[in-house]
Specification:
By secondary structure, the protein is α+β, with helices and mostly antiparallel strands. The chain has 20 helices and 22 strands. Among the domains are: about 5-70, no CATH class; about 215-255, no CATH class; about 310-420 and about 490-595, 4-Layer Sandwich (Glutamine Phosphoribosylpyrophosphate, subunit 1, domain 1). The strands form 5 sheets. An 8-stranded antiparallel sheet has the order 1-4-21-20-16-15-12-11, covered by helices on one side. The protein has a 7-stranded antiparallel sheet with strand order 10-7-6-14-13-5-22, covered by helices on one side. Helix 4 packs antiparallel against helix 5, helix 5 runs antiparallel to helix 6 and helix 16 (about 350-370) crosses helix 17 (about 390-400). The radius of gyration is 24 Å and the shape is globular.
Length: about 600
Amino acid sequence: METSTQDPYLPKLFSMLIINNGYWQFTNVNKARSGDQSVQYIEEQPQLFLFSMKFICIFFVLYYAVDLQVKSKHNPVFEESIVYEKTALASTSQFCEQFVIDIFKKGGSVADAAIVALSVQGLTSPQSLGIGGGFLLVYYDRKNTEAHVLNAREYSPSGTTRDMYKESRCPAWGGLASAIPGEILGYWDLHRRFGKLPWSSLFEPAIKLCKEGIPLTTPTSEMLIKMRTSILASPTLKEIFCDPKTGNVYKKGDFMKRPALARTFEVIAREGADAFYDGRLTEQFVRDIENNGGIITMNDMKNYRTKWTVPISMDLPKKGRIYTTPCPGSGQVFLSILDVMFSLGRSDVPGVNWFRIVEAWKHAFGNRSAMDGPYLSDEVTVEKYDPSMAKMILKTIHTNSATSADVRNYSKDFKQIFREGGTCNICLLAPNGDAISVTSSINYAIGAQYASTSTGIIMNNHMMDFAIPEYMDKFYSANQLAPEKQPVSCMVPSIIINTKTNDVKMVVGAAGGFKIITATSQMILETLLFDIPQEYAIVHRRLHHQLIPMVIFYEDGFPQNILDELKKFGHHVERMLPGSSGAIISVSKDGIRASGDLRRLGSASGY
């Protein structure tokens, strides 16, 4: 049963929606001073007052939504919240969520639902993810009150060398940019441990879409137009993304068929993951990569392994605990941001909250530059949250009344530059209380900009996540190119539980390269520290700072008074197009709410 919760606060207290201090505040008129004439008016004309105030607020929200659309067609707009009773899903991108709902209704597990969601999302958002990439996943097992992380990220080929891109004119594209994909083995290992429905049945939706036609979403059609020249120049991409009738890229409303990928899914559905890593698909798949200049070998595919590990966690106020991904994810520095902000609490001074958040971001990215990814041969170790990082940041924020433009104040040995990549995050909550937050990626838009002809798989370019010497001012050791190694990622899919009940409190994640860290922390802080309902927090205009460049980037419409105060702290600000997209599921005594970020026309559903 679905219950509409539009304007949930208006009939109860009536609250006026105010944008102030960089966040939404809800002001209860019943708490006004007893001598205030407005209170006297309320007591004398209650019905008229409530009607007038509700009209004003509805007008304000509608005006705000229209204003967002007018300023930029990509800007987020408010969407009313739906309350679900049993289950929910949310995604940073648009896809066919009914397939996932059907899995739950058939008695499938949250693991089954995640496999369907990822395989289908890879078709509707091929620019962001697919089985040519990899993922990081956080799983919460409600029955056993245990959390797990599945690392199915890509490893570099065994033939990787530190100077392999020295002579490359364009290392981001082509086979040399591709790492060994982990997506399919990730599905397999997830299903072996937590799946309920037959493995083969989980690929039926993807096969059906590939054969009958994948509806082209607005973000995908816009991407095809933007990358039209590159697509037409690539025979393998042209075969996938161009309408054979017109010779041009598909447009919104078209249905895109992918017969080669359908055959690949059918083989994997029948024969399991081995068909891809050490079976009938492997040899030709490797040859396709070699034909595009890549160095992935048959042994690289055969030796690939996913890893189950323990999530990195931290206790939160109000009986909360957050679980997120250790390295190669950025969980350690991500938790330091939350630790700093929850330790400081909420300030009543308009710009102080944002000054603190931005300083925490800058320190986090400074510390992240020293992170190094794991090797395939490494034993699985437990990475625990280290609060010393947050304690150091807290001393700096308490001491300084202004920001610094000197990178050395945030990192003693800054080691990397940051390049932008794309991703997708999916949040799932099952009827039995189990939950998954998973972030998947092929890195840049359309990955390495080529596909395997035999399998129809679009390949990742995650080798670009390493610190490549040719793009650095000097040689650095952290996150350096090496054989059979994972690059560091900004992925931080997260699950928050209530430690009193052991039930899921929130499932959250984001997409958008380096904006993942800032967007996810911003959504969590707005909901849990600033007490903003998630449907507002997910559309709230965002800031971003990644230390280099030394600039606060802001989305159009972010409160100008806050930007002015940040300038007084010494910050330089520049406007940016929305580059991050979030997904949230939250659980309360009122029910389950799910929100997909409309920056990328995100999806949310449930029952």
